[in-house]
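Consider the following assembly input.
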Amino acid sequence: MTLSTTDDRTPRVGQGGAAAGVAVNAVSKAFGGAPVLREVSLTIERGEFVALLGGSGCGKTTLLRIIAGLEIADVGTVVIGGADVTGLPPYERPVNMMFQSYALFPHLTVADNIEYGLRAAGVERAERTSLVVWALRLVRLEGLGRRKPDQLSGGQRQRVALARCLVKRPSVLLLDEPMAALDRGLRDEMQRELVRIQRDVGTTFVLVTHDQDEAMSMADRIAVMDAGRIVQCGPPRVIYDQPASCFVARFVGRVNLFAGRVAAGRPGATEIATDDGLTIRARGQAALGAGSSCTAAVRPEKLLVSRLPAGLANEYHGKLEDLAYFGDVTRASIRIAGGRVVEATLGQLERSSGAPLAVGEAVVVGFDEAAPVVLTA
Amino acid sequence: MTARRLPGRQQLAVAIPLGWLLLCVAVPMLLVLGLAFGEVADRIPPIEPLLSLAGGRITAHLTLHNLLGVASDPLYTSAFGNALLNALEATALCALIGYPIAYSIALAPERQRRIYVLLAVLPFWTSFLMRTYAWMGLIRDSGPLNHLLLALGIVDRPVPVLYSPAAVLLVMVYSYVPFFILPMYAVLERLPRDLLEAASDLGARPFYAFRTVTLPMSMPGLLAGSVLVFVPAVGEYIIPDLVGNTDTIMIGGVLWAEFFQNRDWPAAASIAFLTMAVLVVPLLLLRRFLPAFRRGAAS
């Protein structure tokens, strides 16, 4: 397969060329007896952009390093582009990794850094030169080839690290927290830039991040990790709207969780009695036996806050305790009967209609039957 | 108003090392330089006064004769050449032996590293002379080395190792290798691991990564270690005297002989001064280029 290119300057030379899929099969890894990965399996399609999302110590970076060959799995296999690479050292794998520290060679110029992998592979000089020019242009660093890494800004260093990987035309590009060292404005810009570059070169991207916004905005699919396992894998929208567990619901986005038991369950409608005495009506979620424990998860933006009841399936009286203004949204904390505080995001509509809500006011907070996701894990 | 001055304590802090350098380095060097321009005399000290007061006039008795003589006499120049060659060989061997040792210490688990560094400097706990005598015992004709060679049937009569240039080199490398290992280790230990991982990830086989990343980045340690070995090795006097033969004269031995046996202080001072001059010039050049290497390793 030739690379899909929107850029006709893209040279059709190099080592890797074609993007490849990755399959991680039942990989486990322990460091000094402490398990870091527990039977992780993950299939990544050719040309896909997948984010490994999780907190520190969840095993996401270890998984990335196992794909790169920098760590060897205790058990399990890694397949790249249909070939089992489990036992191959990093220098024989058709993948390249962008390190969190960038790991640029300080004794080499920018151009020599980018050229390094081509020299190591024995690419001839003329081809090397044209590939370096192409890579510098791809990451918009033309004219900086003769600088040393310590003469560059953080954002420029990151681009060099990216170019150094991409010039190898890897079948899979691995990115370990690429934005961690950048400040916020630059981060947003580089996120868009990375997505553009991924579309341009068509390579499979695997991104490790602890930043849910980064994962949501960039990836085709997110694998949420916790304690050495992938707890859910799917498109950002599915992860957000149908989290598989309380952990995922909490980790990706903000959420109100109501723990309780199924009071009456029949196909198409579930009634949940929460531990603090509320009743929640939810649609769908078939076949949950009465009495089984579960949690209703409701996103703050699905909550409606008003002065009078609006006739929604779930409505609770409460007192507005706090308003936090973020410009685009306002977050409201409401203490409802039973003492629980729920969080609601006030949209444009609620903020503009009538007199604005004030802290201390008695309000009704409600959501319809479709809003809650009923979780059993 | 006087010009801004350092506060008293800081002045003291600067004055102490400055005074030390003046007293223990600058003054003796000037004395040596002065001696080099003096003339031998049959008296104590065995030298004509550099300055004399006669008829109300101060006369300086200075001559270039010693310096020029030492610089042109083949006895001295060949002894200097021998010392230089020997020091180069010792430095090269120290690098070849010390680099792998320093590298393996740097790669060892953190807790073990301290033990290995301690082992590397452990010989310093014994007097240098004792260790040299121990080597003499090991390599003499009836020593353990020849016993072993005979027992293994490699030779049928003892090999004369002691009192040979090889013995000088052996003991010098043994004595100096810790001076190479320590700065080398200090640099290699700080070498970021992720650079080697990046090299491997970019397709570099281990040896290629070593040649293109580890070696250039450890150049400051290599240079520092080499200087620490090479400079004292050139002037080394005890080891060639104890384990070397009398045919290969080195500049350190010549200096000793001129001073103590021939009582030719001006010649000895000239040797000392010229040797230092020949060593200092390349070192100053090296220093000019060292910061560039340092910068490379630091970031």
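The interface with chain B takes residues 15, 68-70, 89-91, 95-97, 99, 101, 103-107, 116-117, 119-121, 149-150, 164-165, 168 of chain A (CB under 8 Å). Ask yourself how this observation constrains the way the partners meet.
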